[in-house]
Amino acid sequence: MTKTRNLYLIPYVAWMLLFVATPIVLIVYKSFFDVEGNLTLENFEKFLTPVYLKMTFNSFWYAFLITAFSLLVAYPTAYWLTRTKHKQLWLLLIIVPSWINLLLKTYAFIGLFGTYGFVNSMLEWVGIGTQQILFTDFSFVFVSVYIFIPFMILPIYNALEELNPSLIYAARDLGASPLKTFRRVVFPLTLGGVKAGCQAVFIPALSLFMITRLIAGNRVITLGTAIEQHFLVTQDWGMGSAIAVLLIIVMAIIMMMTGNRGARNSIR
Amino acid sequence: MKQLVRLFAGVFIIAIGLMYFTSYLNSSNGYSGGDTLTIYNWGDYIDPDVLAEFEEETGLKVIYQTFDSNEAMMTKIEQGGTTFDVSIPSEYAISKMKDEDLLLPIDHSLIPNLGNIDPRFMNLSFDPDNKYSIPYFWGTVGIIYNSELLGGKTFSSWNDLWSDDLRNQIMLVDGAREVMGFGLNSLNYSLNDTNEDHLQEAKRKLSNLTPNIKAIVGDEIKLLLAGEEAAVGIVWSGDASEIMGENDKLDYVIPEEGSNLWFDNMVIPKTARNLEGAHKFINFMLDPEIAARNAEYVGYSTPNAEALKLLPEEISQDERFYPDPEMTDKLEVYQNLGKRMLSHYNELFLEFKMHRK
Amino acid sequence: MRKNSKSAQLYLVIVFAILYAPILYLMYYSFNSSGTMHGFEGFTLEWYEEVFHDTRLLIIVLNTVVIALLSSAISTILGVIGAIAIQRVRRSRPRNTLLTMNNVLIVSPDVIIGASFLIFFTMIGIKLGFTSVLLSHIAFSVPIVVLMVLPKLQEMSPTLIDAAKDLGASGWGVLTKVIIPFIRPGIFAGFFMALTYSLDDFAVTFFVTGNGYSTLSVEIYSRARQGISPSINALSTLIFLFTIILVVGYYFLSQRGKSKPKWGAQQS
Lengths: 268, 357, 268
Prior knowledge:
The complex is a heterotrimer. Chain A is mainly alpha-helical. Chain A is about 75% helix and about 0% strand. In chain A, helix 7 (about 135-160) runs antiparallel to helix 10 (about 190-205). Chain B has helices spanning about 1-30, 50-60, 70-80, 90-100, 175-185, 195-210, 220-225, 235-245, 275-285, 290-300, 305-310, 315, 325-330, 340-355, and strands at about 35-40, 60-65, 85, 105, 135-145, 170-175, 215, 230-235, 250-255, 260-270. In chain B, strands 4, 5, 6, 7, 8, 9 and 10 form a 7-stranded mixed beta sheet that branches. The N and C termini of chain B lie far apart (about 60 Å). The mean pLDDT of chain B is about 90. At the A-C interface, helix 1, helix 3, helix 4, helix 5 and helix 7 of A face helix 1, helix 3, helix 4, helix 5 and helix 6 of C.
């Protein structure tokens, strides 16, 4: 047993050291330098100013909204998908749109949501009249949910698939209503999938960029946008790295917390 | 298990097959091998026919790679690992690259066509004696507006932007120097101002503009303005000419307080391998006939005096893109303010972006 | 099988409609003779012709496919090894450390991964191009595969392995005959996720590519300066149709494969 364990660890750990540890060390190292290349703690101090704190708050708020809406849409989708004929095919077809380049889809959304776009023509036709959709919080959250939804559906779908159907029959036989069956049996048993999905959405949502500019017109500025700006535009790699370091620490904390709970669940 | 092994074997075989096919395509099209010249330029910033003609004339195969910001380009060149022979950065990037020893000096004796350049655009502060860079295109920053959407309103001053009837109508380019620059200009300060009080004043004034701003965007501003998504935009003159080419309801103006004068110059980065080819290319691009064709295709203002004479009058006499000397005097080139000041500009711009109505 | 109600079906139809709306929009405008994404002027196949005459674009598409296939296959193998390795670490401290390490790359914004890989590759002297792009795609895909495979491994009851061992299976036998068949859905999910991430990635590739080597997303981003060019729309339409045919075809072929043994059993 011990021998095989070591064997599996060798390639994996070697890979991790090379491609995960080294970049992190490089980032941490960079975060202690200012624009002129002096060793300093200034970057971390700057993070504590209102601008960056507000940005952090915004990022968490929007990431929370995006995760919540993704879950709200994804759970019923996954649930009903498992009950269709050819469910594997439908699941694949949920993933396929994410293979089309993100920027192209974003441009398509600009077209769809624009003042003279498809959605507004529909609204006009229904009689609501033209609304500003592009460059609002709504469009930002909508497009983000659109991007992340497959990553939420997939784990929930897998969890639902593993659910033993006899449990549901049993609950029904014992006289539970469909709603009660769902609340007491189905949902608690698929909580693992829900958690995996939330992780897979929340974390990348914190560091979104690109669509903050294209869809939200820079009205929403997340930590990801700031990092991208510091690396690509202002060339202040130190500040960018400092934000990244803090972001990574926050992630590690979230992971540790949810990870531990997962372990406890499996023991129970 | 068997199915998995089959799947993975299939994937590897297909991938390797495709790799062979690609390398075959590469070599049959001359993209690999000796006589190549790698050009690193902005996307769609050269007439492809001109490139083809250059290849035909010199027998060199051009590998054309594109970047979308000066900073991304500098990062690539600084890190090395690639062989770019010619690149076309903007003037502030050139002075930065010069400071960081990323450029090779240009041998003027190999560029007989250099005399075609208007002396006004030579020997500027960012590169004295044009030791490292040769002008490619130039332009200004100004206001583009759609009077039809605004009931015939026109613009002449930066301060016109603060008007109450422009609520949610303005789009800005996502650039710290550009936005801070017009903030400073609107107060009649220089756009290279480093006085802290002036900068704070400009930032406060910009914050008052927030209700009028619809979005702060990148290159997609062209698409959005041409599609009448907003009525007013702050753009570079080159973008303005493209937008106006697509939608003739729009008009461009350089505000009377003055504005920015920018340059994109050809340089030879230190990563260059084919020095002879790089000089040949620069000289080729300065040929009056070639430069005129390129200017017509790209739509930016050419610094080439001989080429300007070849351009149709409706282009060369257009004061919006070739302003008269009186206006030109009010235009300023961005100076290299130093890294610390620049990052201060960026911080102020970020604060402005974070400011919500 | 329980069938979905009418309203559930309607819900799924709406979800699919929204998922495919931007793609249909792109496809529609790939036939626009004016070459823009607003205002349809007339029908043309001009842009498709342009795609087929553009060898450089073809090379880039092939590059993208090669990178996606190779990186997801290699990272699936590495990821499965990694997941088994993590699963075998019994003590929770080192296990959580490994998991956190694993998640760091998923967590960090693409720009940072890209920038740190750029520094890293130039530091150790790897020429920018195919190798550097492939390595970095593998690097960010491995953790995703691990995340997809790990839950499956955790579900597996240890008695299964013990039983196999008691029946005299070697370590290799246990792996190929017991573990891998059991975690197969996880492996597939991991492979497809890796494929998705690789096809979608822009920021990382953008940093680590060079010497004329380019992938589709990088090409699209640099062409997007002019607004999306119609030939890119046309190309995406072709790629999209090709994938759909591939996915549907693969699905029905594998369905037929599954039912074959049944017929055989009936005949004998």
